[in-house]
Each structure stands twice: as C-alpha cells, then as structure tokens.
Amino acid sequence: MKSSVDNKAPKQQVHLQQNLKKAQLEEDRLSEVERQNGLLLDKLSKIAGRKGAEEADPHKALVPGQAPAPDRVTSLNAPARKAQLEKIAEENQQLLKRIHSKQLGKGEYSRDTMDKEFQQHEEYVKLGRQA
User: Fold this and answer.
1) Which candidate, 85, 51, 84, 83, places its Cα nearest to that of 69?
2) Model-level pTM?
3) Residues 52/68, Cβ–Cβ less than 8 Å
C-alpha cells in the first residue's frame, strides 16, 4: 500500500457557513422596529382623531395635545424676532452687494488696482506713524 497526503480542502461545516446568531439578532432588531412603528402609528392615529383647533371654541382652554388655532398663536418676542430677521437679511444684501462690487471680470485680480491700494495703505501707515 502506497502512503499519500490528503491535500484536499476540509469539508465545509454547515453550522459554520450559516451565521444563525447574526440572523437571529437581525430578526429581533427588525421585530423591535416594527413594534415601535406600531406604537407610533397608534399615537398618530389618536392625535389625528382628536378635535382640531379649527373646530374648537376659541374662548375655551386647549386640551392636552390640541394645537392652537393659527390666529390664536401669539408670541411675545415675535416682533423682535422679525426685526432681527429683517436686520440679518439687510446685512446679507449689503454683503452680497460688496462681493459683487469687488469682483473684477471673471474672478481675476487686477495688479494695478492692488498696487494702488497698497500704495494708499502705505500712505496711511506713514500718516499713522507721524501722529
């Protein structure tokens, strides 16, 4: 009888090829997501079934979870917020104008303009040293 070495790959074990624990964890995670979705759906359906602000008496107090009517909503700082937003919008417009006014042609720099600005700057520095 002739001796020989078995060079074949080992047999694949079925329990090692299938990652059952990973599949179980994934299934558990998906079932938890489905459960949470069901709870959220129930809450949303309860909210949708409530009496809306349009149907409610404007002089009555709101019940928990009821949205106020649009004309009933007042904020004490709404005018200040509006003024602040208008100020920001105005500042943005001014900044945009400055950016557009500084652009030369196609985003190129003008050496002559830069030289003139530098010379002006140097004059200001000299004046500052003299004072």
Assistant:
1) 51
2) 0.33
3) no
